[in-house]
Amino acid sequence: MLLDNHGRKINYLRLAVTDRCNLRCFYCMPEEGLDWLSRKELMTYEEMLQSCTLLVKMGIEKIRITGGEPFVRKDIMQFLTALSELEGLKELTITTNGVLTAPHVAELKRIGVTSVNLSLDTLDAGRFFAITKRDEFADVMDTLHQLLKHDIEVKINAVVMDGKNIQDIIPLVQLTRDLPVSVRFIEEMPFNGDGHIYDGLKWDHIRILEEIKSKYPDLQKITDPLYSTAYNYQVPGHKGSVGIIAAYSRTFCGSCNRIRITPEGTLKTCLYDDGALNIKNLMRDGVNEQDMKAILLNAFNNKAKDGWEAEQLRVVRTGVHESMATIGG
Ligand code: SAM
Ligand code: SF4
Predict the structure, then answer these.
(1) In 123-209, where do the E strands start and end?
(2) How far is CA 38 from CA 19, 42, 43, 316, in A?
(3) What is the pTM assigned to this prediction?
(4) Is residue 5 part of a domain?
(5) Which of 21, 36, 143, 323 most suits a substitution to test ligand 2, by most atoms within 8 Å of the C-beta?
(6) Ligand 1 pocket, 66 CB below 6 A?
(7) What is the CATH number of the domain that holds 174?
(8) 232 lies in a domain?
(9) Could you give the CA distance from residue 229 to residue 249 in angstroms, rounded to a whole number?
(10) Which of 15, 48, 68, 157 is the most exposed place for a label (fewest CB within 10 A)?
(11) Per the structure, how many domains does the chain have?
(12) Is residue 50 part of a domain?
């Protein structure tokens, strides 16, 4: 079992396979996009598979593929299939914006993907365009229905943004009445890729909960799954559930079980740190498996206590401002 220096089990890897994206969610990246990584800077599928193989041998049980948008990377399905065959891997999941996902859903089911996080901040096509700068709402909804049709668990991720989608909170909760989905409201974080610093978080987890309770006073707290980053609730009689993720307030760090690898191979032991090492560079320098294992263990033994400490320890102390697409969310 892999443990960090705070005695927490590490069994979950979030791997971002690209920084590129076909949407421009304003909370994630500027409209002109990012200074995309070149092919050489990007980890190859072979390098990713090799890293995952080693990490699974070391104790990782669950891998989430994210990005950027995973489905814009060529041959992603071949890579997912290879990953799904890794001995010792118990769970393979994906976070996607759903624009290109629908045609792959049957194959995802076949290779054993049991759960998908779908990003959807609004149920209104006009507001979807205002938030993402792309007219792709219908395709995202198609993905939602395909996932449900194929009996894949769906968690909807909705970032709560002052002045942008507050009117969507109640309709998104309403969606759980007839659909067996978990709608998770996420506090907006400063990872927007353009250095814009928010003047305080207007919608924290407490205010989001109050907003939901104003319409659903009988909202019930339900048991949070092990390692859950969300506080989970249910409206009595609804098929689905509601979660609130205090991503900015960082109330969940005490049970953190995760590490991240960015598209260029940086290992992050906390979402808010600026990287412990670069696994791709080490592999390209010819570091053997045994040494790599020791280097990784050392990084896990220096994991920050929480996101506040990780942010404090960043080398460049300008606050977090990189795009979530370069981290993986
Ligand atoms: N493109 C895919 C998607 O949107 O689902 C995967 C990558 S995206 C970076 C992963 C998650 O991060 C999404 O659910 C997105 O809403 C969330 N995210 C991005 N920027 C964020 C921010 N500034 N604050 C909170 N969540 C953010
Ligand atoms: Fe793309 Fe996901 Fe970032 Fe939106 S949140 S711009 S879909 S990477």
Answers:
(1) 153-160, 182-187
(2) 10, 6, 10, 24
(3) 0.95
(4) no
(5) 21
(6) yes
(7) 3.20.20.70
(8) yes
(9) 11
(10) 157
(11) 1
(12) yes
